[in-house]
Amino acid sequence: MASKPKGFGITALVCGIAALALSFVPVITWFSWPLNIVAIVFGVLGWDRANKGLASGKGPAIAGLVLGLAAFFVMCALSTWTVWTNEPAVDAGP
What we know:
The chain is an all-alpha fold. The protein has helices at 7-23, 33-51, 58-85. It contains three helices and no strands.
């Protein structure tokens, strides 16, 4: 018997790990949002397919979903903090 595919779960897990790692880098965090979206979407799709019995890999799908959501919140928090604490490098006063 052939094993069931688990591509969605593995893709979600890899993208979630990469997104979480990149979301902690100050400048790169602005560009990590596509990985967040991919991890969340593929995590939901993989979880759904595993629940329907069409695929295996429910664990990696859930882990990718959680990592994608965590990376999204870290990205939002660090981006907000960066914008609010950004001070001009040169004093424009007289």
